[in-house]
Amino acid sequence: MARDTILQKYATSTVPRYTSYPPVPHFQKGFPAASYRRWLGALDLDEPVSLYLHVPFCRQLCWYCGCNMKLVTRREPVADYVETLLQEVALVCDALPGRLKVSHLHWGGGTPTALEPNDLAVVMETLRDRFDITPDAELAIEGDPRTLSQAMIERIGALGFSRASFGVQEFDDKVQAAINRIQPVDMVAAAVNGLRAAGVHAINFDLIYGLPHQTVESLVQTIEHCLALEPDRIALFGYAHVPWMAKKQRLIDEDVLPGPEERLAQAEAAAQALAASGYRAIGLDHFAHDGDPLAIAAAQGTLRRNFQGYTTDQAETLIGLGATSIGRTPDGYVQNIAETGAWARAVLDGDLPIAKGHALTADDKLRAHVIERLMCDNSVDTIAAAHRFGQPADWCTEAMTDLGEMADDGLLVLDNGCVRMTEAGLPLVRIAAAAFDSYRQHGTTRHSAAV
What we know:
This protein is an alpha/beta fold. The protein folds into two domains: about 15-360, Alpha-Beta Barrel (TIM Barrel), CATH 3.20.20.70; about 360-440, Arc Repressor Mutant, subunit A (Orthogonal Bundle). It has helices spanning about 5-10, 35-40, 75-95, 115-130, 150-160, 175-180, 185-195, 215-230, 260-275, 295-300, 340-350, 360-375, 380-390, 395-410, 430-435, 440, and strands at about 30, 50-55, 55-60, 70, 100-110, 130-145, 165-170, 200-210, 235-240, 280, 285-290, 305, 310, 320, 325-330, 330-335, 355-360, 380, 410-415, 420. Strand 5, helix 4 and strand 6 form a beta-alpha-beta unit. Helix 5 packs parallel to helix 7 (about 185-195). It is globular. The two termini are about 15 Å apart.
């Protein structure tokens, strides 16, 4: 099928990013915190878990951002948040059957480096006191080069963090002005070099295509600047323009956003530039050197996908801490209250601050596995999956029928219950995954564009 025809037919489809299944919009509001407490109490002490800590503060506002964040200029709200976060850690740990091992720990936001260095140290000390953070655990933190201080760089290194992630997005001046994120190349370089000198050797960059005024040329130039800084991993995301959810995006002029064909051209040019420089494509939107653990996991078929995107994290339990953070246990998902005041009041009252959640059914677990493997491996054996989860082999007849049209268009291959994306179909893997999503088929939730 001609590229233009594919664009007209598929690229304007809106589908979830499938960092969970079911996707967050389908979680149940008012989910009982007692259920989550019961799930925590049933965890296996021999199985490592992951921790995610959310800091919903930024010192500067980026108009493109869809994350839960608050602009902060004073010390007091951050200090209060940290105190409440420590109390939430205590509440969660009191619900656990004992001291759990931690294999991955990730600070996200907002901007975690909006904390004071001592704040970060106090929370990390508390976590080490209440959990067994294994010697080989990956400790990762997101940072903003515009506000990252030398004192914070040194403290991150001293605390043993092994990976840092920066939102580069785009270096073009006009694009940066249009999204209100001004950060010259030298500023990012200083942050990267400072962290490496402090002992944080694994560096991730996030890039975005589809931004206002962005072109293929500007994005490729950005990649050249990035390559000079030698990041270990690069994530290349399509800008999700969802102003009905992220109100700050209403400050972006929609008339200067690239259209579907321009977005696809940008994504393809960026992927080609990264491949030519020795980066291996990982899943839908990540790139890494062959020796990177993410690339090794992809080659071995052990790549996973969670709320941080593609990951090597094999833990079945992710404990989320902080306002709006999301957690997962083998029994289901929970999401904390998003509004920091309401979140804090719940914690101070001694309650787990749960806003919504979802108890996984047997059907959910099967579909989650199939969607994750398709998103991670670009292929999946639906019959083998059915056998693994004790379901009949014809469980997905409707989905396979729906995928027939994509197969006819040369975007995937269907073979005895197996689904395999073709090279032409790789950018549309989310659309293929959506065929197995029973919630999307019967829901009306709005999502971002597939390309």
